[in-house]
């Protein structure tokens, strides 16, 4: 048998919290491209519900959002047979490995995490130990599957760094336990900025709901938000991120949704007002979202199907996770039956 046939594909692991919604920025910058990866990589897409518990959740909402995120992944083009789309709490090895990693992670390292500092400032009444040790659970997510690449935004780079540090630390103590993962930054994807303040990234946690387009926004909401998008008073449609960040952001979105180049769009709209740019951008977003939303609404009614996907994929994930966990327990000296 040739090497190629035997060679294992590299592993990609991605985790998203079932809180908030998926934004246009997440879709264009990440999820849209994920469907193309399953040829070259073994991909796991995990709904990280245990991480969500680090801030207070309404139980019924958490349940609903877990199913919604699963449906959105599938509706966005990820095939649940070619990819492992599953829920973190269905694979007990995540919490088990997290405990072990906690014992190899220093208080000082955790205290330096900017997400911990930010979230403790936001939730002063609930600075819990889970929030503090969040990175150890995230490291467990990644290391359990011998992950090579982790697609993340800039805000999560520090968590990948600490994951690497923990992996290297344990590898040097016990021999090769873990693959040391790298962040995966998809090439040349557009950065989508807030519609209200185009100097900031579009974020699902933005308090201003007009700043963010989410994948399940209705067409009339998209039109309204676009009409309110901040531009400038210069009234010429040009791409210039420094001088004209709002207009440039709209051009980036329109280009990403229509498939036309920014240059071609600028030429087409020469001499026209911002109203035209905004309307065209809204329509292009709505056309991009329409098939995804239709599929989402079909899937979300089929709870049995979604539950089946989660059950089956939890089994596939468990088989992989159990292998790593067993090796870790054994190497660390936990008595084996
Ligand atoms: N911390 C990530 C976020 O807030 C979510 C996450 C949890 C994650 N586990 C992960 C991302 C593992 C990548 C890999 O966005």
Summarize it.
With 337 residues, this protein is mostly helical.
Task: Give an overview in words.
It contains 14 helices and 5 strands. It has a 3-stranded parallel sheet, with helices on both faces. A two-stranded parallel ribbon has the order 4-5. It is globular, with a radius of gyration of 22 Å. Helix 5 (93-102) packs parallel to helix 14. The chain has 2 domains: 11-185 and 302-332, 3-Layer(aba) Sandwich (Rossmann fold); 209-297, Tyrosyl-Transfer RNA Synthetase (Orthogonal Bundle), CATH 1.10.240. It is mostly helical and 337 residues long. The two termini are 36 Å apart. Residues 13-15, 17, 48, 51, 138, 141-142, 150, 152, 156, 159 line the site of tryptophan.
SSE map:
Elements: H1 3-6, E1 11-16, H2 24-34, E2 42-47, H3 49-52, H4 59-75, E3 84-87, H5 93-102, H6 107-111, H7 114-122, H8 129-144, E4 149-151, H9 157-174, E5 182-184, H10 219-227, H11 245-258, H12 262-268, H13 274-300, H14 303-332
Parallel strand pairs: 1-2, 2-3, 4-5
Helix pairs in contact: 4-13, 5-8, 5-14, 8-9, 10-13, 11-13
The structure holds tryptophan.
Task: Give the SSE order as H and E letters.
Answer: HEHEHHEHHHHEHEHHHHH
Radius of gyration over C-alpha positions, nearest whole angstrom: 22 Å
Fraction of residues in H or I helices: 40-55%
Helix and strand composition category: mainly alpha
Oligomer: single chain
CATH class of the largest domain: Alpha Beta
CATH architecture of the largest domain: 3-Layer(aba) Sandwich
Strand order of the largest sheet: 1-2-3
Average pLDDT taken over every residue:
94
Name of the CATH superfamily of the largest domain: HUPs
What is the molecular shape? globular
List the total number of helices.
14
Major beta sheet summary? 3 strands, parallel
Tally the beta strands: 5
Approximately how much beta-strand content do the residues carry?
5-15%
CATH topology heading of the largest domain: Rossmann fold
Low-confidence stretches: none
